[in-house]
Fold these 2 entries.
Entry 1:
Amino acid sequence: MFKFSILSAFRRKTVSVLAIVGVGLGSGLLVVLLSLSGGIESRFNTTFQSLSGTISVSSEGGSLFGRFLGMTGDPIPKSYADKIEGLEGIDSAASFVSAPVRSDKFGPLRSFGVGLTGVIAGGEIFGNPNQNIVEGRSFENDNEVIAGSEIFDVSRFADFDLKVGDKITVPIGSTRETLDLELVGIFKTGEPTNDNGLFANEKTARDLADLKENQISGILVKVSNPEEVNDIAKNIEEAFKESDPLVSASVPANIFESLSSFLDVFNLFLLSISLVAAAAGGTAVMVVMLLTVFERRQEFGILKAGGWSNRNVIVSVVITSLTLSILGAGFGLLVGSGAALGLQKLAGAVSDRQFIAFTWDIFAWAAGVGIVTGLLGGIIPAVSAARVSPIKTLRGE
């Protein structure tokens, strides 16, 4: 019966192929969307982990992510870093000077500016960009800068020319003077929060920001226990409540925690689309099986007259449906994987970022949903086949 049921799936080859394609498209779409969702989630988690346990300290009212644009707000005294390092629960504190770099070399980024950071101490908190050079070299002299790899992702997309060795002329602070910078290298730390900016020595950043020697733009703090990061942030603000200027101690990871709920909704949306497509594939199997059962009513009647029970008929039709579903799911995994890799290749033309992430869970989900929906699509036809009367069939009714 098993072999008979499998072979029955291919009696009408054209219709069977359509059923396989229907299930395959549903499973394939599931692979594409889930792999896209996995890639986004992986990138989100990488960024979240890089910010876990860190606190950004700037003058009161300063922007949490101002360093990325070189606009952290008013400067704070350099001595604040020593006081923060002396607080309980602090692992390290890295002072930095930041300034906006606006140049035609950055194309559409010119209007916003690219943040240039000069690290005074604690470069490991920033991912040690000068030790992760992928092209050129690190800065050695004043007015030399290195650029994060993700800036060049934008350059490919926006079609602006920026390369190692270029001279970049930028205005100094609020003055009318300019400073000529030289791009000497490209770095990649693997942390998006750092790889979107420029780095230089302290003097270059200070000259560009037009800050005095006793002033800094902010402090990036690493705590010993990430679970205490919010309490320590409050302690930092409390420690400077009598100081002038006051400070804001912000926890970047909190922003990403709030974004995680949006990511969950987005993933649910993608999953819903995939399930609708999978249901359409199951419907295709059901339609094919109903047509098959209608054409084979006389055959089922004869089989029942020859000793087959209703259970035998149902099992036979379900096996036929399952055969189409398994083939469709396999076809979908191949097509979906190919489509996802194709999308990644297209995206790779403008960015080195990994947008697609494959896991065994994705393939299990896609195959499982395709098989189950196809199997469910065969239940109604199976019950219909079991109701065929052998007596009426033998009478030719």
Entry 2:
Amino acid sequence: MNPADVWQLLTAALLVVLAGLFTAADAAVGSFSKARAQELVGESRAGAQRLVAVLDDAPRHLNTALLLRLLCETTAIVLVTLLIAEHYDGSWWAQVAFAVGSMLVVSFVVVGVAPRTLGRQHDETVALWSAWPLAALTTVLGPIPSLLILVGNAITPGRGFRHGPFSTETELREMVDIAEASALIEEDERKMIHSVFELGDTTVREVMVPRGDVVYIESHKNLRQTMSLFLRSGFSRLPVVGENLDDVRGFAYLKDVVRRDFEAPEVEFTQPVEEIMRPVVWVPDSKPVDAQLREMQARRQHIAVVVDEYGGTAGLITIEDLLEEIVGEITDEYDEAEIEVENLDDGQVRVSSRYPIDDLDELFGFDVDDEDVDSVGGLMAKHLGKVPIPGSVVEAHGLRFEAEQATGRRNQIATVLIRQVVPEPADAGDVPRD
């Protein structure tokens, strides 16, 4: 073996060591919390301030560590393979097998297991030590790791990861899946943790109560009428509007109406609801759910009006809507299983509000043709011109529809009573005589 070969072997060994150092840095920084790093700043630890800066953009710095580890490891494998091919007499597949076998052991132990173990056992020391080199190398490489991630996302089917699949969030998601598969956590807990990560990628528009489902009260209505709508709809907060739903002037709270009615019963029929309404909070429909949840918690708000890009009312958002993105649908003890079809003794039929109008011919023997809607609930909303609430009645297509009960936190109509309308008999004077 000549001196050039010795240098080639030493270079490969040095690259393996560097790859191991990058692995240790990745493991230490990836498992280090920003709060802990800020505590080290308070203790005036050397490198702590730089570590906080690295953790502020952790995915970018971890992608740099990964890229450089792969570069060092791949280069070392190539150098060793060339060296074996030059000095090992045998067939090409034997040379490849020897190179792969030897480097597999070295890569697994020296680059994979040992550095990662040390990085997590001594995460504080390794993270402080590696913060400055990682920051400097990330600056030198610039956008190269991010560009490579974009290329990878472009050629990968489906939705890619913005910071790459090597970010700490993605690794934590995988750890949660493994924990659920190992029966360490329940499936519902796994879904809840995943939902927390998705909050930042979900907008208010996706979880709001849409404009068409909003129940509101006109500003000139008195307290008695407002109380009646509260009781019929099942809501405890209602938007107060002027000319239309794009003119939301405030929110009426059930407890405010009850308190005012208790303190001054004589104004129940004379005082308009706009005199006791609360101010409106406006929210853009593009706002991330996690930011909106933090804001509503900080301001102690429960409900807000969602506006679209043109300034019109797109819907309503409540804190319960946001929490449902984490814990799933919130129901109460009054919710019942959805009924599809139930024939009653008085000749009426109870159906789900989602029952298709195309299937009504099977119940009543004639077609109900309405091109604008597909369900019984949609048919009622169309003819009422507003969201149906319990007690709402519509007569259309020879049938009488009565909204029966609401269910769920949003109090949407669950079931509808339908009966055929019997035409009134003609008067005797109207009957033509021969």
